[in-house]
Design a protein that fits this description.
The protein is of the alpha+beta class and 803 residues long. Among the domains are: 165 residues, Beta-Lactamase (2-Layer Sandwich), CATH 3.30.450.40; 150 residues, Beta-Lactamase; 151 residues, 2-Layer Sandwich (Beta-Lactamase); 36 residues, no CATH class; 57 residues. Helix content is 40%, strand content 29%. The protein has 17 helices and 31 strands. The strands form five sheets. It has a six-stranded antiparallel sheet with strand order 3-2-1-6-5-4, with helices on both faces. It is elongated, with a radius of gyration of 44 Å. The N terminus is likely disordered.
Length: 803
């Protein structure tokens, strides 16, 4: 041993340890100081792992190794050799090489003959927390050397423990920051889509990934008494998608009824025995469940089964799941609102389609509407209708086909399959996934296997059209996507099939009504003409010829007219991006505003407070990071860098939220909402309208032209409008757009000629009504005078004879 005063050695050690904050460097300093006392040996610092839970055997964990010594394994059983003796006696031990066998220090990797071995316990607050082991292969360690080691350990022990506490606090802080980052990332992931199926899958998979569990179940409220399992990530043999729990049937229903979260850590809990009565393998031994509440309304319950580390859940896991559940509940609520909005859109479109089907008795038009119009709400690739006429089958309409050839290569397979569906007299819904065809009967599977190979389709839905008087025909829909029909689409089809059956039956009956009675008045007029005197007949014939020449050769301007309604070229509603109370209004009705101009403010003290708080925390994190960098504490600087980045993103988000409290005009125009200044103090919800802005610099007048005259409309045609508000004034403009889609108005269908009229003085206001005329060109006088009755006669003749 090298002689040295132990006071000097301890002082040097403590001085070096004060320069380090973490346990590892401090343990290394202690080992280095101890190894300097021996020649040809080394020192090892151990920490005693107490084990968690207590039934796990304790172990010594090597934290620092210095000198000519090493370990075969860094973890040594607590009762092993000399270290085991130290754990029992908790007193300093000194051994000579002659006293020990190789098994006593088997944990050491020693290829030289051991001369001395000293073990000194590290005891803090009367608790054994570690040990210092010093080995010498050349000199003998005596009692004075041992005393120096004891003094070193007594002085360094509190420093080691404080370093350990510092590391634990730092790791805890890093874990907290990591969890905050995970929660922030989860919130962004959950808000990345509004599709319900995608949201459900994201929630279960992400929660399973964060908590590292065997399975995550997502239950949604079905009604007041029942909750339904709608999505599952992982394997839970005691529950599957579609499982339902009613009140009193399980702990998930209990969470739904009470709104309180549940933690079950005992696999013998009676709730598990009720959940898994057959004692299935991989059944739950620990579970946590949290309610999903959005806007004070219960959406469902999220449940986690069995941690993957085989340890039961604890309160920290329950707290983390509850934190995630808040974002998940909001995402599910938003997806539900989108679904409800889509259902409203589907119902509106269904009403429109129904009106088109029932608005005419023209069989061809009804057929084309049935195969084409539903495509707006049902995602099929092709639809077809076959009718039964006089006991005979006939393919009558196919999507996108005007002239049907039943023997065409792309039509023939469809024609055969529709004939088979019609005579089967039942709904046929067949889907192909890979090589598997989903159909109950072998005959159906065989028939559709060949049909799908020929047509390239993978999904087919066929339904017979029948009413009280018998069979009308059959409707078939097909798609390249086997799952193109969702439950909502099947509900729509039930309504559509009933209306289509009635419309087709009425159109068939109307087509078969005889019109022989129309010829009787013509025969009577002929008899009266032949009974007239000759000169009268001649004069009458000459007059008719003159009128015919006039009607056939003299050109007159043709104008088509209809009701007119004035509208602004552009209008926009000012709506809040968040809920809030109107605090200030800067405009009144009739005020001119520009794009982006602030028209009102919502109460924003909460947003300003949140922004100030985030900015303060961001600056604090930056200051602490710079301070750590200045002291060369890179680990602390890294922690503060993470904190600073987090609060920087919060500052940006809070600034965006603050900006949304200012209501701005989306366009240049005039405020059209009356008494808008009285909105102060009113609370606005999502979707509420604060005010409407109209661009009145140019007016658009919609002239409703009847369906029969729509073919005469041309873009750029001259038009004249007379409004009820200005009975002596005629406004002139040009047709800007002819609406590509008709609208039912009263008992007829109209198309709108949108006439652009200068309105620099603002006399034309939105909503003014009147009458409009559009020039259609120059035509013979007969065509101008008798166009409508001639067209009516032609349409009747065409429907009778097909000419």
């Amino acid at each position: 041993m090298r002689p040295s005063g132990h006071v000097e050695v301890s002082a040097r050690l403590l001085s070096a340890m004060l320069r380090e904050r973490e346990f590892g460097p401090r343990a290394t300093l202690l080992a280095q100081q101890a190894s300097e006392l021996v020649a040809g040996g080394g020192a090892i610092v151990y920490m005693l792992d107490l084990g968690h839970p207590p039934d796990i055997p304790r172990t010594w964990v090597a934290k620092a190794i210095v000198g000519e010594i090493s370990l075969d394994e860094p973890i040594v059983p607590a009762d092993s050799g000399t270290l085991g003796t130290l754990a029992q006696e908790q007193q300093p031990l000194l051994f000579s090489g002659n006293e020990l066998t190789r098994e006593d220090y088997a944990h050491l990797h020693a290829r030289r003959t051991l001369v001395s071995l000293a073990c000194v316990p590290i005891i803090v607050n009367e608790l054994l927390v570690g040990a210092l082991e010093v080995v010498s292969f050349e000199d003998t360690i005596d009692s004075s050397d041992l005393q120096i080691l004891i003094d070193l350990v007594e002085n360094a022990g509190p420093g080691l423990i404080s370093g350990k506490i510092y590391e634990d606090e730092r790791n805890s802080l890093l874990e907290s920051v990591s969890r905050l980052t995970q929660l922030y990332d989860l919130e962004k992931v959950f808000s990345s889509t509004l599709e319900m199926d995608e949201i459900q899958s994201l929630i279960t998979s992400k929660i399973r990934e964060v908590l590292d569990v065997q399975a995550v179940n997502l239950w949604l409220v079905k009604d007041e008494q029942e909750i339904l399992l709608v999505n599952q990530s992982g394997d839970d043999p005691t529950a599957f998608v579609g499982t339902a729990q009613r009140t009193g049937e399980g702990y998930v229903a209990q969470v739904s009824d009470s709104g309180e979260r549940v933690l079950i850590a005992d696999e013998e809990d009676e709730r598990f025995l009720k959940r898994n009565p057959l004692a299935l393998e991989d059944g739950p031994f620990s579970a946590i469940a949290c309610p999903l509440v959005a806007h004070e309304k219960l959406v469902g319950v999220v449940e986690c089964i069995n941690p993957m580390d085989d340890e039961p859940f604890d309160d920290d896991d329950l707290f983390l799941l509850n934190s995630i559940s808040e974002s998940a509940a909001i995402a599910l609520n938003n997806a539900g609102l989108l679904q409800a909005e889509r259902k409203v859109e589907i119902l509106e479109m269904l009403v429109t389609v129904s009106q088109e089907i029932t608005s005419t008795l023209n069989l061809e038009r009804v057929l084309q509407t049935i195969v084409n119009a539903p495509q707006a709400v049902i995602p099929y690739d092709r639809a077809a209708v076959a009718l039964e006429q006089g006991g005979k089958y006939k393919l009558s309409a196919v999507t996108g086909v005007t002239q049907i050839d039943p023997d065409a290569p792309d039509i023939a397979p469809l024609n055969d399959i529709l004939r088979w569906v019609m005579f089967s007299e039942e709904v046929v819904h067949v889907r192909q996934h890979g090589d598997e065809i989903d159909a109950p009967r072998e005959e159906t599977r065989a028939k559709f296997k060949s049909y799908f190979e020929a047509s390239g389709m993978q999904g087919f839905y066929g339904v017979p059209l029948t009413d009280d008087t018998g069979r009308v025909g059959v409707l078939g829909l097909e798609s390249h996507d086997p799952d193109f029909l969702l439950p909502a689409h099947l509900e729509i089809l039930q309504v559509l099939v009933g209306q289509a059956t009635v419309a087709l039956r009425n159109a068939q009956m109307y087509k078969e009504v005889p019109f022989i009675s129309l010829l009787e008045p013509v025969l009577q007029k002929k008899r009266r003409f032949m009974a007239m005197e000759k000169w009268r007949r001649t004069l009458t014939i000459a007059g008719v010829v003159a009128v015919a020449i006039f009607l056939a050769g003299f050109p007159l301007p043709l104008r088509v007219d209809g009701d007119a309604v004035a509208a602004p070229v552009r209008s926009a509603r000012i709506q809040p991006e968040q809920e809030g109370v109107v605090s200030k209004v800067y405009v009144r009705e009739g005020d001119h505003v520009t794009h982006g101009q602030v028209v009102a403010d919502l109460a924003d003290w909460e947003e300003r407070a949140a922004l100030a708080k985030a900015q303060a925390r961001y600056q604090t994190a930056l200051l602490q990071m710079n301070r750590s960098l200045a002291t060369n504490d890179t680990s602390e600087a890294g922690v503060q860098r993470i904190q600073a980045d987090f609060w920087k993103s919060e500052v940006a988000r809070d600034q965006e939220l603050l900006d949304t409290t200012r209501l701005r005009s989306p366009i240049d125009g005039v405020v059209a909402t009356p008494n808008v200044e009285n909105m102060v103090g009113r609370r606005l919800q999502y979707g509420d309208s604060f005010a409407e802005v109209l661009d009145a610099s140019r007016a658009i007048v919609d002239v409703a032209i009847d369906d029969s005259d729509a073919g005469l409309l041309r873009t750029g045609s001259r038009a004249w409008v007379k409004l009820n508000s200005y009975p002596t004034r005629t406004f002139t403009g040009n047709v800007m757009v002819v609406s590509p889609r008709g609208t039912v108005q009263g008992d007829s269908r109209v198309f709108f000629a949108r006439v652009a009229i200068p309105n620099s003085n603002g006399v034309i206001r939105a909503g003014m009504e009147g009458r409009g005329k559009v020039r259609a060109g120059w035509y013979p006088a007969g065509y101008v005078f008798f166009r409508k009755p001639l067209l009516w006669i032609y349409s009747r003749a065409w429907s009778w004879f097909g000419l």
